[in-house]
Amino acid sequence: MLKVKQFVFNPFGECTYVVSDEDSREAIVVDPGMADAAETDRFDRYIEDNKLRITGVVNTHMHLDHCFGANHVKDKYGVPVRAHIADAFLGDTLAEQAMRFGMRSVGDNVVIDTPLSDGDHIVIGADSLEVIHTPGHSPGGICLYSPTGKFLLAGDTLFKGSVGRTDLPGGDARTLVGSVRDKLLKLPADTLVLSGHGPSTTIGHEKATNPFI
Which residues of the chain have pLDDT under 50? Predict the structure, then answer.
């Protein structure tokens, strides 16, 4: 069975997730956003206390608030960064992204080691997550779906009562709404949606009430 641990990190209130298999203790880190030593220590303590073996970083997209801790996890645990290759340009321009938000430095750029594509499966112990390409918030935006766990890690594609912003480089509102309608709303209504910011929701609730879709 997959277990999902949520952290809220950095000034953007970004949600970082650790998804682990309770039997094998294998785990992936989704959107590591640790921005300072205290947040990094809190993350590392969780990994150590639960005796998890991290097998990879997965970024739902490569905006800076979701990338702050990617190189720490990659270097400390010796694992690759996986994301959709269409977002590689964002990982290469973290300094420029930081400047837009009045930030001086965000550390080194983040390189995608293993490109992900729509329909790929990320294995975690005896289970896996399905990659769903959902461009719009960014060209390479993806969501991660667990049919067995009935949850969706939605990144910044879908929020409770909202969708991701589309005014950043590579964003496109029509594409984003199409991604949500054509791919996410087809999932079972009771699917738990765990977003990159803010509270959780369900596919059914968003289908019935979200004014953007």
Answer: none
Which distant-in-sequence residues (6+ apart) come within 8 Å of 107 by Cβ?
68, 71, 94
Beta bridge partners of 30: 17, 58
The Cα-based distances of 190 to 5, 64, 187 in angstroms read: 20, 31, 8
What is the rounded end-to-end Cα distance, in angstroms, of the chain? 32
Residue 54 near residue 84 (C-beta atoms within 8 A): no
Tokens of 21: 């298999």
Closest Cα to residue 101, out of 9, 198, 12, 211?
Answer: 12
Contacts of 42 (CB under 8 A, 6+ apart): 7, 34
Contact between residue 63 and residue 29 where contact means Cβ atoms under 8 Å apart? no
Q: Is residue 94 within 8 Å of residue 106, measured between CB atoms?
A: yes
Place of tokens 């964003």: 171
Return the pLDDT at 188: 98
Nearest to 155 by CA among 46, 32, 20, 1: 32
- Cα–Cα dist 138/207, whole Å: 22
Across-strand partners of 162? Answer: 159
Q: Distance between CA atoms of 55 and 188, rounded to whole angstroms?
A: 28
Amino acid symbol at 34: M
Q: Do the beta carbons of residue 143 and residue 153 sit within 8 Å?
A: yes
